[in-house]
Structure formats: C-alpha cells, structure tokens
What we know:
This protein has helices spanning 35-49, 55-58, 68-73, and strands spanning 4-11, 16-23, 64-66, 76-82, 86-91. By secondary structure, the protein is of the alpha+beta class.
Amino acid sequence: MSDLAYFEYALVLPEERYLIEVQTRKSDSGELRTPEEIDQIASESLALAIGEGEEKNIGEFKPNPISESDARMLKKVEQLLARSDSTVYLVE
C-alpha cells in the first residue's frame, strides 16, 4: 500500500476531471494524518488548482475518495499543482 490517498473530482461545465494525490503521512514527523486532515488537504489543493482558492470557496469542493487501482486507470494529462503534501492532475 502506498503512502498516498487518492481523490477524484469532475466538473460538468467545462467538462474536466481531476486526480488529487495526498500524502497520508506528515513529512516532518512521519505520523499518519487523520482522514479529516487528508480530506481538507484534498479540498484545499483542488480549490487552488482550479483557481478557486479563496477561503470561502474551499468548503464547496468535496473530492471523492477512490482506490489506488482506480487512480492508476486515469490518464494524467497535466500536473496543475504540486505541493509537499499533495499533487493535482487534470486527467481523462
């Protein structure tokens, strides 16, 4: 099992799909993140990647958790955001 949690998010207009990879361990301590922390990082990263990173907008984004095998089936088209704790890709 990897140290990543995977999320998918789709927009209808424009039709776009995103893959969000979140580190499940804190880089400074190696401690596992809580599910709430992982969800928050996924939402923040997605909001920043699609240009809606204002604090009031972050809660509107609820990416769906997916399995690692489902994530591997998505074709990464473009990396939109890279942070120490997460990466967001445009996928098809």
